[in-house]
From TrEMBL:
It holds the Pfam family TPR_TTI1_N. Residues 1005-1015 have a biased composition (Basic and acidic residues). The keyword Transmembrane helix applies. One of its GO terms (molecular function) is phosphatidylinositol binding. Residues 1005-1031 are annotated as: Disordered. The chain crosses the membrane at residues 6-24, 31-53. Signal peptide: none annotated. It is found in: Membrane. It comes from the Eukaryota. This is VHS domain-containing protein. The keyword rRNA-binding does not apply. Its main location: membrane.
Length: 1276
């Protein structure tokens, strides 16, 4: 029966056959055939057109090619069609409800369903035409399958997947299953090509996920689909093969195909894990209860064992051997879906447990380069499989929670009957049929307990993984097994607890926070409340005893684990750990001390420069704020290299101090100090342990927030305050009486005599410094415990601590400073300075007493230096007697260079304090007039400067470039010479009438000049009279004068260090007396001969200090140098220049051994800088100026000398230019080959002059090397 449309097309086909074919088939091969037949004859074309209309009529769809017959089913409406295939008498009937396209009454969903059908129809029809599947037609088949999948996917994305009903599913499924049946008929062993298989599996996966296929799923269909998907993975061949690895290589399947097949296995399961609708979230979807129960029961039956075995084997093979991470992750999810979510039967899981654990163990333990996500997911699967198989509830017939003697007797009786059972069944030894179940007996449980413990021991070797997600997975594994397998895995409780305890203080909160919650839940678990305490105590004992061997090992990770476990078990036990610690401490303390040996290699540092100059940084802002603390320098241990390990060790000792009887533990440790020597090097470790135990006992560093509130640790000290104070006093008095505290480090074991780098040399006191630092820190801790009551101990503590502040070693000095700051904080002082000033009388008396016996107490000057630096100049009046005793000591011990050098260091510290305070004050009182000589930087008085300025315009004309500085006395003489020449010229050439002054006018000018000079002389005498009327020196200035008078003769000492120290001392005194020239000049006159001799000293650093002192003299009293530069200073400088320039190559920047820190470089820089200051502050005669220019012009060579030397020479020339501009200009012009750039500058000012040849000697051919610096000097 045909539709109206088909009848119309029959009529059209009779007259116009191609038109009818076009309306039915479009532009296709059928249309071309019809046109060809029409060209041959009309009748064949008409017959072909009617055939096409009949074949593709609206009620009889031909969905499969080749001799198939379709007919309406009886008693069925026209919308139901039977698709049958007759092949060798085998009939396969599949019913499909096709939408009736002629229906005019359809709702919107029916309309959408029709649209989807029409989109699927072409590809499904073409797919049914495929007669066989092979690589030759794989491209066409793949295109058709991908078209079907794309149509299905688009319907899902457009939200029309709801109209996909059973009819459409069967419509798509029939050609897909037919395609699988028709693969490679010629060679049945030829696998389906991967591209076809991948596209085919994609369509099946869509039908499983969104086609509601499982609603009609029956167990037999589930089994067939699982076999099909396993075949796509190659798992069946591998399971049946004798050589699985060889079979896997032969059946190479792409990773993409395997991934889709694994997803299909997950999707076909009754309880499945699949990609969520948003963000790829994971969720579990279950079928209706009845259907789910039927399928799950079928999965757990023995009939499915041959199917599930290859699936599990294939998944494990993928996890172990594949490289594609997404595939491996999906395989792990599929394993969990099959084993945990769907099977979940302990009897079934017991049969696959060994194989699953073996392969997953390989992934976690041996795959050290595996992805963290893969390892974490493998751990989660191990956790779930073990907990499902060995859960206490599932094995309650094998284990019992024994709470009475009756339970124990019953358990023993049952154990006797079960001892003969086997771990697994042996089907070959009986006549019963093969069974895949495991007979779970007591023997099976005992065997698996030991095997799983071995697996866990290997597994937990990787618990120190660097990734937090993996550590969290280990934590969850331990907690799940402890909570669900408490009785079945009782032999693994210890190692699982260790894992949780290890992560309790993890550096990542995402690990530590859940772990603490797990521990809290474990402690509250009813089965653990009676048994966990003994387990924890035994574990704490074992780890405390084994900690020494971990401390001395080279594995930092194992050290950190052992320390963390000791602390964790102690925290879990709370104050119950006191008994364990007391019993074990006596046995382990010596091993702990040997593992905590300290080293002094990092303490061999340079001497402290500028001792205590920045000590304000150590003062606490609020001494009454108990939350503040001072951070001491980090400790260095022989065996502990990682700072994190040391930090965990401190926390562990503080925890022990908070939980145990601290007085007993500390008493054991203090016995090591009673021997009187430190030959074994155990004082440092003992002091370290005592310090940390005391901090924990007093809770000086609160630990609130580190642990969950449910864990039994309060964080409060166990001892009462009075008991704790008594313990702190006992520790302090024992430590302060030690020789290393009472008698500071001997000098010969600390420093060498090298002034630049005072480093520790080899000495028998290998750990002396570290022990001393640790003892000082422990004293600081006792002060924090005693608080204000520590004031009673200041008499014993204050002087030794200040004495160690003066030690040349930086670490010891810094530790002593911090100790003093901590004591000041504990005793409610605002700063260490206040503490010292409040107890200065005691300190001064002790210093004075020991200075009289300085041979017995050679460290006394260090205490004086520290005291001065702390208290400032306000304490100097109290130390006047001490300073006098130092002067006496200098006289008495003048032959002992070491004592004299120490005393000079103390005096230098005092002068520095005075100088620093004077810098902060104004040098002159407000409103006073500045001194005429000091007001001039060039040393010329104001009167002469005014006179020169008055006549400068007459001499220089209108030249703007001439500097408007006051002229020197040499220029004044040149002025009068010029006037005399002009008078002679006026006499010889009277007729020219040049307009020069008359003789009378010149006489008046001369008389006026003499009067001005007389007034200037009177003003200078008046200035000297005013200076004589100045008040006497201050006390501090008088101290400085006395220091110079008492120490200057040491400039001739045999020790170069002492000579250098004296030069530094005098250099510091000069700024203090700069405004008192009447006192300063005689002092300089006294030291002048020795200072000049020091410019020829054999030690270079002494020469540098002498030059520095010369600079200070030039700045402070230039008038004194004005009479001595020509006679004393400049000849010495010429000698130094000659010595330095003997080997010019050593100053060349390209020389291999050249350095800015070399002696010639530093000496040359110092000489040039000294000359610059002398030129700036001292008036020089012309011959000296010319000599300086001649000697130093080579240093402007940019090719021969370092840039730093060039800069110093440029600054020197600029200073000379202010007073001797013509001379500088001439010498600079002589250094360049062309004067065009210079002549342009002086055009109209001077006549063109020729530079003498002698001034160009040594610079010919190198003018370009000077040009840049010359331009910079002349500011061109």
């Amino acid at each position: 029966m045909y539709s109206c449309k088909d009848i119309t097309l029959f009529i059209v086909g009779f007259f116009l056959p191609p038109v009818a074919v076009f309306f039915k088939r479009g532009c296709s091969v059928d249309l071309l055939i019809n046109i060809a037949l029409c060209c041959l004859a009309a009748v064949p074309g008409i017959i072909h057109a009617w055939y096409i209309i009949h074949k593709y009529n609206d009620h009889f769809e031909d969905l499969e090619a080749g001799g198939l017959h379709y007919q309406p089913l009886p008693n069925e409406p026209h919308s139901a069609v039977s698709y049958g295939a007759v092949n060798n008498s085998n009939l396969a009937l599949v019913r499909c409800k096709v939408p009736n396209v002629c229906s005019r009454r359809m709702d919107y969903d029916e309309y959408l369903r029709q649209e989807l059908f029409l989109k699927l129809k072409p590809d499904c029809v073409e797919l049914l035409k495929v007669s066989f599947v092979s690589r030759s037609n794989s491209a066409r088949i793949t295109t058709l399958l991908r078209g079907i999948h794309q149509t299905l996917t688009e319907s899902l994305e457009s939200g029309h997947a709801r109209v996909f009903n059973e009819t459409l599913r069967e419509y798509v499924l029939f050609p897909l299953l037919g395609l699988w049946r028709r693969r490679a008929k010629a060679t049945d062993n030829e696998p389906m090509p991967d591209d076809i298989k991948d596209a085919w599996l994609q369509c099946i996966l869509w039908l499983l996920k969104y086609g509601h296929w499982q609603d009609d799923m029956i167990p037999e269909m589930l089994k067939q689909l699982l076999l099909l998907f396993t075949l796509c993975l190659g798992g069946i061949k591998r399971a049946l093969s004798h050589n699985p690895d060889e079979t896997a290589r032969q059946t190479s399947i792409s990773e993409e195909t395997k991934l889709v097949a694994v997803k299909c296995i997950m999707a076909v399961m009754p309880v499945r894990r699949m990609d969520g609708p948003t963000d790829g979230a994971r969720y579990t979807k279950a079928l209706e209860e009845n259907q789910q129960t039927v399928l799950i029961v079928a999965l757990r039956s023995e009939a499915f064992r041959p199917v599930l075995g290859p699936i599990i084997l294939s998944m494990l093979d993928i996890v172990r051997n594949e490289q594609y991470l997404d595939l491996r992750m999906t395989a792990l999810d599929a394993l969990r879906c099959v084993l945990v979510d769907n099977i979940g039967d302990p009897d079934v899981l017991a049969s696959v447990l060994p194989g699953v654990l073996s392969d997953l163990l390989h992934v976690v333990v041996k795959g050290h380069l595996e992805s963290r996500s893969l390892v974490a997911r493998a751990l989660d699967l191990i956790r779930d499989v073990i907990s499902e198989t060995l859960a206490d509830e599932s094995n309650n017939h094998l284990v019992k929670d024994i709470t009475s003697f009756q339970d124990l007797r019953q358990f023993a009786r049952e154990g006797k009957t079960d001892n003969n059972g086997d771990i697994t069944s042996h089907p070959h030894d009986s006549q019963e049929p093969l069974s895949y179940n495991v007979n779970r007996t007591s023997a099976w449980l005992n065997g698996n307990k030991h095997q799983i413990k071995a697996v866990l021991n290997q597994l937990l070797t990787r618990r120190n993984h660097s990734e937090p997600s993996v550590r969290l997975a280990f934590s969850n594994l331990a907690y799940k097994l402890l909570s669900t397998c408490t009785l079945t895995l009782d032999n693994s409780t210890g190692i699982l607890l260790e894992t949780l305890v290890l992560y309790m203080d993890d550096s990542y909160s995402m690990v530590s926070t859940p772990t603490r919650d797990h521990l809290t839940a474990i402690t509250n678990h009813p089965r653990f409340q009676t048994s966990i305490s003994s387990t924890l105590k035994q574990s704490l004992t074992n780890w405390m005893e084994s900690l020494p061997q971990y401390l001395t090992s080279s594995n930092e990770s194992s050290k950190l684990n052992a320390i963390s476990l000791v602390r964790g078990f102690a925290l879990m036990l709370g104050h119950e750990a006191n008994t364990v610690i007391r019993n074990v401490w006596n046995r382990v303390e010596l091993g702990w001390f040997n593992g905590l040996r300290m080293e002094d290699d990092d303490l061999g540092v340079t001497e402290v420069k500028g001792l205590l100059e920045g000590f304000d940084n150590f003062a606490l802002s609020d001494p009454r704020n108990e939350s503040q603390s001072v951070n001491f320098p980090p400790k260095r241990f022989v065996f502990l290299e990682n700072a994190r390990v040391v930090q965990h060790l401190k926390r562990t000792l503080r925890t022990i101090g908070a939980l145990a009887d601290t007085d007993i533990l500390i008493d054991h440790c203090m016995n090591y100090f009673a021997f009187g020597n430190n030959k074994d090097g155990l004082w440092g470790p003992a002091a370290f342990v005592v310090n940390e135990l005391l901090i924990g006992a007093a809770n000086l560093i609160p630990t609130s927030g580190e642990l969950s509130d449910n864990i039994r640790y309060t964080g409060t000290p166990q001892a009462e305050d009075s008991k704790l104070h008594g313990l702190a006093q006992y520790i302090f008095r024992a430590l302060v009486s030690l020789d290393i505290v009472s008698y500071p480090i001997p000098d010969q074991s600390i420093t060498s005599h090298n002034i630049q780098t005072k480093t520790i040399t080899s000495s028998p006191h290998r750990d002396y410094l570290s022990t001393l630092c640790m003892v000082l820190e422990t004293i600081a801790t006792t002060s924090l415990v005693l608080k204000s009551t520590f004031k009673l101990e200041l008499i014993d503590a204050l002087y030794p601590i200040i004495e160690h502040i003066g030690v040349p070693n930086a670490r010891v000095s810094t530790t002593a400073q911090l100790t003093l700051a901590t004591i000041a904080h504990s005793c409610d002082y605002a700063s260490p300075q206040d503490l010292i000033l409040d107890n200065v009388d005691y300190i001064v008396n002790t210093i004075s007493t020991r200075l009289r016996n300085i041979a017995l107490y050679p460290q006394t000057p260090r205490v004086f230096s520290a005291l001065i630096q702390f208290a400032g100049s306000s304490v100097l009046p109290l130390l006047s007697d001490v300073i006098d005793e130092m002067f006496d000591g200098l006289d008495a011990w003048s032959l002992n260079e070491r004592i004299c050098a120490d005393i000079c260091t103390c005096l230098l510290a005092a002068v520095k304090v005075i100088s620093r305070e004077l810098d902060q004050e104004s040098s002159l009182p407000t409103g006073s007039e500045p001194d005429s000589k000091s007001a001039r930087s060039d040393g010329v008085s104001a009167e002469i400067a005014e006179f020169v300025g008055k006549y400068s315009e007459f001499w220089f004309g209108d030249v703007e470039e001439v500097a408007k500085e006051s002229k020197s006395t040499e220029e004044i003489g040149q002025y009068f010479l010029a006037q005399a020449h002009k008078m002679e010229a006026a006499t010889d050439e009277e007729d020219d009438k040049l307009g020069l002054p008359t003789e009378q006018e010149l006489r008046e000018d001369l008389e006026k000049t003499e009067n001005e000079m007389r007034d200037a002389q009177q003003a200078g005498q008046l200035h000297e009279a005013k200076e004589a009327e100045q008040p006497p020196l201050t006390r501090n200035q008088q101290i400085c004068v006395n220091i110079v008078r008492k120490t200057h003769h040491f400039l001739a000492a045999a020790s170069p260090r002492l000579r250098s120290d004296i030069l530094k001392l005098i250099r510091t005194v000069i700024p203090v007396l700069s405004n008192r020239p009447l006192e300063l000049n005689p002092l300089i006159h006294t030291i002048w001969p020795s200072l000049i001799r020091r410019l020829s000293d054999p030690e270079p650093y002494v020469i540098l200090n002498a030059l520095t002192l010369m600079q200070a003299i030039a700045e402070g009293c230039g008038d004194f140098l004005s009479r001595r530069v020509m006679d004393d200073v400049w000849p010495k400088f010429q000698t130094l220049f000659h010595a330095i320039q003997q080997d010019p190559a050593q100053l060349h920047p390209s020389h291999p051994g050249y350095s800015v820190y070399s002696r010639p470089h530093k000496a040359l820089i110092a000489i040039l800088r000294t000359l610059r200051l002398i030129v700036q502050h001292v008036p020089l005669r012309d011959e000296v100026t010319f000599d300086i220019l001649s000697r130093t012009r080579d240093f402007l060579n940019s090719l021969r000398y370092h840039r730093e030397i060039q800069v110093e020479c440029i600054e020197l020339y600029r200073r000379l230019q202010q007073t001797h501009y013509d001379a500088v200009w001439i010498y600079c012009s002589a250094l360049v080959p062309s004067r065009s750039h210079l002549e342009a500058r002086i055009k109209g000012t001077f006549r063109t002059i020729d530079i003498p040849d002698y001034m160009r000697q040594g610079v010919r051919g190198e003018g370009n090397a000077f040009a840049l610096n010359v331009n910079e000097v002349l500011s061109i």
